[in-house]
Amino acid sequence: MILAYWEIRGIAHPIRLLLEYTGTPYKELLYNYEKCSDYDKNEWFKDRYTLGLDFPNLPYLIDGNTKITQSNAILRYIGRKHKMCGDTEEEKVRVDILESQAMDFRMQLVRVCHDPNFMTFVDFSMYDILDLNCKFLPACLDLFPNLQEFLTRFEGLKKISAYMNSPRYLPKPVFLKMAKWGTQ
Ligand SMILES: N[C@@H](CCC(=O)N[C@@H](CS)C(=O)NCC(=O)O)C(=O)O
Predict the structure, then answer these.
(1) Co-location of 59 and 78 in the same domain
(2) If you count DSSP H runs as helices and E runs as strands, how many of each does the chain have, helices first?
């Protein structure tokens, strides 16, 4: 059995753990990404379409004539051999749900780690309410340097800082006249 992947932990780690746990003999083929800055020219790209994989990708597992991509399909293949997919229908359903749940969980971290500046509309609301609280009680974030940094980062965004310096910017009054604070 050959397991191929980049020379990193990545999404191959659970497969390696399952192979080890089940005592499955396997060899690893590790593609080095760092050595070649040009993705198109690295070793994986040379192998990509020559291995007979239906949907070429990493990781892949080759076990005789069986060639598998998709990390969950690989895990399931090994799991099936060792009766680790659940026994009853109810168990199998739970295993299927957990398989997808675990992948969703994994992808959340992947997204955050690859794009730490990932923004959602909630960031805008969060900025506004934190900023207002700071105007209301200037010391309110003294114990929260991470939130202070968030405000600074947000205000440093090119389009936001341009808006804040434009005549369109309307930071106050915060409320209508019937309020006891924030009317000026
Ligand atoms: N859904 C696939 C994702 C595979 C994937 O995105 N592999 C990345 C590394 S994590 C890769 O570099 N694939 C090689 C390629 O796209 O050519 C899986 O779970 O195996």
Answers:
(1) yes
(2) 7, 4
Q: How far is the CA of 58 from the centre of ligand 1 (A)?
A: 5
Q: Given 117, 135, 159, which residue is the final one in a domain?
A: 117
184 shares a domain with 113? no
Q: State pLDDT tens for residues 35-94.
A: 655 655 678 988 999 999 999 999 999 999 999 999 999 999 999 999 999 999 999 999
- 72-96: string of b/e by CB count within 10 Å (b at 16+)? bebbbbbbeeeeeeeeeeeeeeeee
Residue 5 β-bridge partners: 30
Handedness of CA 3, 7, 12, 13 (dihedral sign): positive
Tokens at 176, concatenated: 């209508």
Q: Helices 121-136 and 145-156: crossing angle, nearest 10°?
A: 120
Mutate to test the pocket of ligand 1, among 7, 36, 46, 57 (most ligand atoms within 8 A of CB): 57
The tokens for 13 are 């780690």
The number of domains in the chain is 3
